[in-house]
User: Which sequence fits this backbone?
């Protein structure tokens, strides 16, 4: 079982280790909360947005919103901003596909489209996982009351009730 806060904190800590020049946080703030000098090296914000494939706590996928912001200087042109965004985005993309985490996939990317010069930003909708978020509860602490004498199996496509007569004991399987 893994704790969701630990998972999210590990993601930002690993990105920070990989790219120490960037500032990394889980605390989203409006642009007005930052000085230009704070955004110049780039700020990456990781926001938990929910989960998907609900119903299997042992293989939960976590939805994330990743916001990269960068200030490009008061003389920056639109293309300068776009290039800084793409450089920063490439770092996030490289991180997602690296062996550091290896389980974050980017689903969608949006950028400032050069509309907010001298500020640049990108937003990635991501899915991470699967993660085991199940509780460590032993439902059969004493074990089952009775064990079956044999376990019967079959192979596709001969499975299910219509093929029940074709099942055979597991002990009949040969090592292949």
Assistant:
């Amino acid at each position: 079982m893994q704790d969701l806060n630990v998972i999210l904190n590990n993601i930002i800590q690993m990105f920070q280790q990989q790219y120490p020049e960037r500032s990394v946080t889980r605390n989203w703030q409006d642009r007005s909360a930052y000085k230009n000098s704070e955004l110049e090296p780039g700020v990456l914000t990781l926001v938990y947005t929910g989960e998907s494939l609900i119903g299997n706590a042992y293989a939960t996928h976590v939805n994330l919103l990743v916001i990269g912001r960068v200030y490009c200087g008061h003389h920056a042109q639109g293309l300068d901003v776009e290039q800084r965004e793409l450089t920063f985005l490439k770092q996030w993309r490289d991180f997602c596909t690296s062996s550091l985490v290896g389980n974050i996939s980017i689903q969608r990317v949006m950028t400032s489209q050069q509309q907010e010069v001298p500020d640049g930003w990108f937003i990635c909708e991501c899915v991470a996982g699967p993660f085991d978020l199940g509780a460590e509860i032993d439902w059969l602490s004493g074990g089952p009351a009775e064990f079956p004498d044999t376990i019967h199996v079959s192979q596709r496509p001969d499975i299910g009730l219509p093929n029940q007569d074709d099942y055979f004991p597991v002990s009949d399987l040969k090592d292949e």
The longest strand covers residues 119-131. The chain has one domain: 4-131. Residues 78-96 form the longest helix (19 residues).
